Every structure is written in structure tokens, then in C-alpha cells.
Amino acid sequence: MATKNEINIIICGVGGQGVVVMSELLGNAAVKDGVAVKGSEVLGMAQRGGSVFSNIRLGGGAVSPLTPEGKCDVLIAVEPSEALRNIQYLAKDSVVVLNSRMVMPYTVYMGKSKYPRKEDILAKLKKVTDRIIVLDATKLGEEAGSIQAANMAMMGALFGTGLLPVSVETAKAVIQSRFPAKAAATNLKAFDLGYAAAQQALKGEPV
């Protein structure tokens, strides 16, 4: 577990990717471990595909639930282009965990907008921080038994950064209690795969 006084985490993605569930589980795990939690959520369009942003501040004495711009410690982007939408929160020492699978907005298919190339997304992020972990969370979810478990692979990667003041054991216990037995087993496997992928990336090994 990390020892930093305060950790600011932003989780972003699009509707249907389980961003809100991730923030709920993380908040519950923090409370269970006796860590102070503040947070807020910004939901985009109600339908699947709208932007979703969750802000979680663990520990410390901050009064506001919102992370100031340039003060994010870890940005979790379940959808890669959403990382750019929240790039203003990053600092030069921020860690970004990026799911490589893209979710194209319907406006792209209608020819009303363009989706940035993955290379361009990474290039813009690297202008701010070079601490970027890229993994295919959707593939890890599939390996665990369900595409829907991609968010738990991302949560595992978040814990795999080693920056959180919350124990992995507590996180797993919260996941176990949140889902029915079969779904819990799938989500826990996805969590472990994401955790391992982040650890590999931090060692400089290919994910």
C-alpha cells in the first residue's frame, strides 16, 4: 500500500463501461480500510456511450470532492479518447492507465465527428507525463470470462500501480461481496489479470 498522504484518482470512460461501479467499489474498499474518501461523479448522456467521469480523493485533508487541475495522481481511462477529455488534470508525475480498446461515438459513424488516432492520443498524453500504462482491458475481461469484466481489469491495474492507500485484499473482499458468486469469480480473475499487467508494465515488460 502507498503511504502518500492524499491520492487523487480520476476514472473516465463512456456509459456502459462500469466506471460508476469501479468508483463505488473503490470508495467502499477505502472506507473498509479506514481511509477518508471524498468524490463526485459527472455523467454524460444517459444512453450508452455518453462520457462518464468519476473523481475520488483518498486520505488527506482536502475539503472539496473535486481534484484541482494538474493534481491528479492516477488517471484511469477505460476508453482511450476520454483520457484526452480529462488531460488538464494531469501533472508531470501522474500515472495514466489506458485501455487500448476504443469505443467510437455514433457521430463518427454518421460522419459528423472524427475519432483521434491511438498514436495521437498517446503523443498528447506523453507531452504531459511519460508514466503511461497501456493494456487491453477488454481482452483481459474476455480471458476472465466476460467482456463486462473489463472495468475490473482496469481496477486491478489501478491497484497494480502500488499508489493506493487501500489493500488489495480489501478490494477483493469488496468485489466478492458486491457480485453473485459466479460473477464475483470472473471479476476477481479480471482484477488479478489487470493487476499483473500493470506490474509487468512498471517493470518495463511488454503487456
How does this model look, in words?
The structure is a single chain. With 207 residues, the chain is an alpha/beta fold. It has a single domain, classed as Pyruvate-ferredoxin Oxidoreductase, domain 3, CATH 3.40.920.10. It contains eight helices and six strands; from the N terminus they run βαβββαβααβαααα. A six-stranded mixed beta sheet has the order 2-3-1-4-5-6, sandwiched between helices. Helix 6 packs across helix 8 (181-202) and helix 7 packs antiparallel against helix 8 (181-202). The protein is globular, with a radius of gyration of 16 Å. 42% of the residues are buried. The mean pLDDT is 89.
Characteristic key phrases:
207 residues; six-stranded mixed β-sheet; alpha/beta; globular; 8 helices; 6 strands; Pyruvate-ferredoxin Oxidoreductase, domain 3
Short structural description:
The chain contains eight helices and six strands. It has about 210 residues and is an alpha/beta fold.
